[in-house]
Amino acid sequence: MFIVAIETSCDETAAAVVRDGQEVLSNVISSQIEFHKKYGGIVPEVAARKHIEVINPVIKEALERANVGFGDINAVAVTYGPGLVGSLLVGLCAAKAIAWGRKIPLVEVNHLEGHIYANFLNSKSKILSFPFISLLVSGGHTMIILVKGHGEYETLGRTRDDAAGEAFDKVARFLGLGYPGGPVIDKLAKRGNPAAIKFPRPMMDQGYDFSFSGIKTAVVNYVSRLTLHASQVPDLVASFQEAIVETLVEKTIRAAKDRNVQIVTLAGGVSANSSLRSRLQKRGQKEGLEVIIPPFEYCTDNAAMIGCAGYYKFINSSLVISHSSLSLSPVASLRL
Ligand code: KG4
Ligand code: ZN
User: What number of other Cβ atoms are within 10 A of residue 207's Cβ?
Assistant: First the structure.
């Protein structure tokens, strides 16, 4: 079964062709980051307009690279939220046009679900089994989710303020390191000592919720007390990253043990973080847990993960709310 998937929830225009929910035949991503960099964050109106410019060429390229035509496609999967409404609308309109023109089903996919399903793209031979714990860490969300089956989620914890990726982005912006902050901090932190500064680990002993705005403020306070020299930045960001990673990993492992779940997965843009990936692997191994991490290219926003989630929604057709529904609307804020 061939699914063409479209993802435009934020600043990446993405299209993919996925076969049988697992084999990625193409995964095209056009990033707008260069246009937004100078503003230090995403400008929603600019994002929507840029999506319009590239959506058709991106879909065309995805089909060409997969060596399929519209006639070979069985369904269209599309992100309908959460995200920027103007951006989502562009992907939705394109998806509706394909579904309507080809008379094929339109499968709506929650962006958060897409990130979780990136883990099903992990290996050709092995399919992830239920239940598993998913640590979903992106620019807009930080959640620990117990995934019991396809479409069956229990949110165990979430951030009460900033998302983990948001904390990376805000600290990087404060330090003048550019946007997005995660990859820059990740790289710089490799040259620093993560034990140099002991930043707080908020709510470490309380449940599975997170709070990251305090760490961000601690960084700001630390810097305001001294004249920061460029040579100190690697230690500073390594220590900040350590505080975030330790909190994420310890709570996730605790959730798995408390719920007696053997598999832990990572999802969302922050799962590209090298320290988080290795730390979770090591801690998981120590606890006898299986840790599954999506391939790097499926961590940040992409359409292959949407195609995968769409496939499982489609084959479990009770989960498909609308088939070729032209009334499907973008949703800015959406839970699992
Ligand atoms: O999932 P994503 O691409 O978009 C959202 O759905 O939000 O996540 C983007 C977030 C940004 O905050 C970015 O700074 C962060 O993921 N990120 C990283 C890394 N790569 C991307 N954070 C830490 N380390 C990274 N290597
Ligand atoms: Zn995302």
Answer: 12
Q: What is the DSSP letter of 122?
A: S
Averaged over 59-79, what is the pLDDT? 97
pLDDT at 324 over 60: no
Q: Residue 27: beta bridge partners? A: 16
Query: Candidates 297, 300, 305: which one to mutate for ligand 1, based on the most atoms within 8 Å of Cβ?
Result: 300
Q: Pick the closest to residue 10 from 270, 300, 299 (CA basis).
A: 300
CATH number of this structure's domain 2-116+299-321, picked from the four choices 3.30.420.40, 3.40.50.261, 3.40.50.720, 3.40.190.10: 3.30.420.40
37 or 302, which is more confident? 302
Expressed in angstroms and rounded, the spacing between residue 59 Cα and the centre of ligand 1 is 24
Q: pTM value?
A: 0.94
State the CATH architecture for 129-293.
2-Layer Sandwich (3.30)
CB of 139 sitting under 6 A from ligand 1: yes
| Token reading at 152 | 């069956």
Per-residue pLDDT tens digits for 100-151 = 999 999 999 999 999 999 999 966 556 789 999 999 999 999 999 999 999 9
Amino acid at 320: V
pLDDT, position 223: 95
pLDDT digits (tens, 9 = 90+) for 255-268: 999 999 999 999 99
- The CA distances from residue 183 to 35, 168, 190, in Å, are 17, 9, 11
Q: Is the backbone peptide bond immediately before 131 cis, with ω within 30 degrees of 0? A: yes
CA distance 187 to 273: 9
Q: Which atom of ligand 1 is nearest to the CA of 274?
A: 26
pLDDT tens for 271-299 read: 999 999 999 999 999 999 999 999 989 99
- Domain assignments of the chain as residue spans, ordered by start: 2-116+299-321, 129-293
Measured over the CA atoms of residue 3, residue 21, residue 158 and residue 165, the dihedral's sign is negative
Does the beta carbon of 300 sit less than 6 angstroms from any atom of ligand 1? yes
307 CB near ligand 1 (under 6 Å) = no
